[in-house]
UniProtKB/TrEMBL annotation:
Residues 48-57 have a biased composition (Basic and acidic residues). This is Host attachment protein. InterPro entries: Host_attachment_protein. It holds the Pfam family Host_attach. Residues 44-76 are annotated as: Disordered.
Length: 165
């Protein structure tokens, strides 16, 4: 069981962590963020030519040289893909939080993804949800824990007790 669950998400990937206390904290230090799961959204960062049949966008030219703009609704399609990914993230979070006895969830994502996540979260009775509007997806578990501890969202990691302590 872990009191804390941390989700770090961006449009292409989401990572799920819990804060685990070691069996022998005096020898091992801790607590430590442990990664449990990573989800990928391969369509998010795919090059236009891999997602769309025609990679052109923005303007079209007529034979007389006059240009006119057209809207292919690619932004709407991209938003829908992120929205679907956020629903997948929310389902995974729900399962992890319920199975782990989680009391605090920390969602870390840039503004747009955080909005999608907020709208897709299931009801988690008795669970406090905190939001961090930053893309922290590239941080490793220790760096992420240090960052969140500086903001007062997680306990700091304590080093193991030295000899003679």
């Amino acid at each position: 069981m872990s009191e804390y669950c941390v989700v770090v998400a961006e449009g292409a990937r989401a990572r799920f962590f819990t804060l685990e206390r070691p069996d022998l904290p005096e020898l091992e230090g801790g607590p430590d963020l442990m990664e449990h799961l990573s989800l990928a959204n391969p369509r998010h960062r795919a090059h236009d030519s891999k997602v769309y049949a025609d990679a052109r966008s923005g303007r079209n030219r007529t034979p007389g040289g006059q240009g006119h703009a057209y809207d292919e609704h690619r932004d709407g399609h991209d938003a829908e893909m992120e929205h679907r990914f956020a629903r997948d993230i929310a389902r995974q979070l729900d399962g992890l939080a319920r199975s782990n006895g989680t009391r605090r969830v920390i969602l870390c994502a840039e503004k747009r993804m955080l909005g999608f996540l907020r709208n897709g979260l299931p009801e988690l009775p008795g669970v406090e949800i905190r939001e961090v509007q930053k893309d922290l997806a590239k941080l490793g578990p220790r760096e992420l824990q240090e960052h969140l501890a500086r903001d007062g969202l997680l306990p700091r990691r304590r080093p193991p007790a030295g000899p003679g302590s």
